[in-house]
Amino acid sequence: MKIERLNQDKIRIFLTFDDLLERGIQKEDMWREIPKVHELFSEMMDQAYNELGFDASGPLAVEVFALPAQGMVVIVTRGKVNLKPEERSLEEEDHDEDVYELEVTLEQSDIVMYAFRDIEDVIAVCKQIMAAEITEDGRLYSYNGKYMLVLESEGLELARYHAVIALLAEYGEATSVTTAILEEYGKVIMPAKAVSEICTYF
In terms of residue numbers, what domain contains 101? Predict the structure, then answer.
């Protein structure tokens, strides 16, 4: 489990599938209201407090992103949860400090994303992907001193999907960065056809 602070009121937690399995939680369980998931959330908040001093009291908005092959990204934002006015009673407004609210958003992603320290590793993996005729597509970014290769898994048959994950894992590392973060803070190197472009030019 890896926790990092995005700003004063927002943290990002990266859970690998091993983290989930150790706690007897399947990926699908994150979509269900079960005690194990509540225990995991409490553990995450304890660790966030111990490591970052992030106090999770009060209303929280929780976004959960499932990343194929890598794990789950949980983004926790502290602050007012925007309930519609008709959903709030005067009594609730009078006792805001005592109300613990949790708003959870769950998203499944078809994006496969791996980080590479060196452009040589990106070139090597792209040549392997092309040789295996898995895909020519993809996007390449630069972010935090690393190269980020982003592939769409949608439409890939299972055998090719597992093959591309194995190749990416051999040369790079799974990352907890979301595409939204990349779009906002990363630099686009190749916006499309990254695999074939790299093989053409290198």
Answer: 2-108
Q: In this structure, are residues 195 and 127 in contact, taking their beta carbons and an 8 Å threshold?
A: no
Instruction: Choose among 121, 114, 118: nearest CA to 165.
Output: 114
Same-domain check for residues 56 and 139: no
Task: Decide which of 74, 93, 108 is a domain's last residue.
Answer: 108
Supply the DSSP symbol for 33. Answer: -
State how many domains the chain has.
Answer: 2
Q: Give the distance, in angstroms, between the CA of residue 77 and the centroid of all CA atoms in the same chain.
A: 15
Q: Which two tokens stand for residue 36?
A: 């194990």
Number of neighbouring beta carbons within 10 Å of residue 166: 12
- Return the minimum-mean-pLDDT range out of 4-8, 21-25, 32-36, 167-171: 32-36
103 in the same domain as 8: yes
Contact 125/167 with Cβ under 8 angstroms?
yes
User: Rounded to 5 degrees, what are φ and ψ at 175?
Assistant: -130, 150
More confident of the two residues 176 and 145 = 145
pTM above 0.85, yes or no: no
Q: Kindly state whether residues 97 and 28 are assigned to the same domain.
A: yes
- CATH for 139: 3.30.70.1950
Tens-place pLDDT, residues 14-61: 888 888 888 888 877 776 767 888 888 888 988 999 999 998 877 888
